[in-house]
Write a structure and sequence with these properties.
Blueprint: E1 2-3, E2 8-10, E3 18-19, H1 37-57
């Protein structure tokens, strides 16, 4: 068994070669400023609609999630330095 330049595993059997796929995770941060909870709910619905449109246009997206939470302060965080837990 050997791997060619296309990263396709090949051997001498009649089995079709398996292609390797990269798995990526994209993180997007959006800071919003709204006047009340009703406007926040409206924005969350618009963000979910935009995300649904993105998924419908790109079939290689396997999972999406959105979480709208209150933030404190006005500093712009560096998402490269953020740490995410997976429970």
């Amino acid at each position: 068994m050997w791997t060619n330049k296309l990263f396709v595993e090949v051997d001498n059997t009649d089995v079709k070669p398996k292609e390797y796929q990269m798995q990526l995770r994209a993180i997007m941060l959006v800071d919003l400023e709204v006047d009340n909870y009703q406007e926040a709910a409206t924005m969350e619905a618009k963000l979910q609609e935009a995300l649904d449109t993105l998924v419908s246009l790109h079939k290689n997206i396997s999972y999406t999630a959105i979480n709208l939470a209150e933030r404190r302060g006005s500093a712009k965080p560096d998402i490269n330095k953020m740490k995410f837990r997976q429970n």
